[in-house]
Amino acid sequence: MKIKHLAALLGACLSIGTAFAQAKPESQIEYRKSAMTVTARSFGVLGAMAKGDIPFNKEVATRHANLLANLSDLPLSAGAFGPGTDKGAPTKADPKVFSEPEKFKAAYEKFTAATHGLPAAAGDLATLKVAVADLGKTCKGCHDDYRMK
Ligand code: HEC
């Protein structure tokens, strides 16, 4: 590819990225809730395998693990929990998400760290069980503090 084209492409990507970072509060709220919904589905599949409710399947587990590892960072880095997204659409995010963003970020980073460990753990049921339990603690820990009932 010619440098000029590459530069134009990069410019286009960057402007899409910027537009998204500046997305309206309602679209940020919709995005973070959707991401949580997708997260919960994949977490549910892995949890069901870990508990023996469904048979362990390495390929399926690895796909869900990869999805979680790739998706988990995006809502935070895209600003979906950022300033100004405390209202604009129905939300259960606790006001503390916005009043103590550093603490929220720390809780969030435990979650991303746990998801990043999943792909390596998903190939074997014994390691998957441990990884799913660790991840589950990060969901619960954050919801207890930062999601309203
Ligand atoms: C760092 C904090 C944090 C972590 C970690 C976290 N969540 Fe959430 N989650 C939230 C917040 C805040 C909301 C409320 C979002 C809103 O209503 O705007 C939420 C909402 C949800 C929802 C409801 C989505 C909707 O449509 O209203 C589900 C389901 C969910 N989370 C599942 C999970 C699962 C499963 C995990 C772990 C694998 C997880 N979450 C990890 C903070 C977190």
UniProtKB/TrEMBL annotation:
<keyword id="KW-0732">Signal</keyword>
<feature type="signal peptide">
    <location>
        <begin position="1"/>
        <end position="21"/>
    </location>
</feature>
<protein>
    <submittedName>
        <fullName>Cytochrome c</fullName>
    </submittedName>
</protein>
<dbReference type="Pfam" id="PF01322">
    <property type="entry name" value="Cytochrom_C_2"/>
</dbReference>
<keyword id="KW-0813">Transport</keyword>
<keyword id="KW-0408">Iron</keyword>
<dbReference type="InterPro" id="IPR012127">
    <property type="entry name" value="Cyt_c_prime"/>
</dbReference>
<dbReference type="InterPro" id="IPR002321">
    <property type="entry name" value="Cyt_c_II"/>
</dbReference>
<keyword id="KW-0349">Heme</keyword>
<keyword id="KW-0249">Electron transport</keyword>
<dbReference type="InterPro" id="IPR015984">
    <property type="entry name" value="Cyt_c_prime_subgr"/>
</dbReference>
<keyword id="KW-0479">Metal-binding</keyword>
<dbReference type="InterPro" id="IPR010980">
    <property type="entry name" value="Cyt_c/b562"/>
</dbReference>
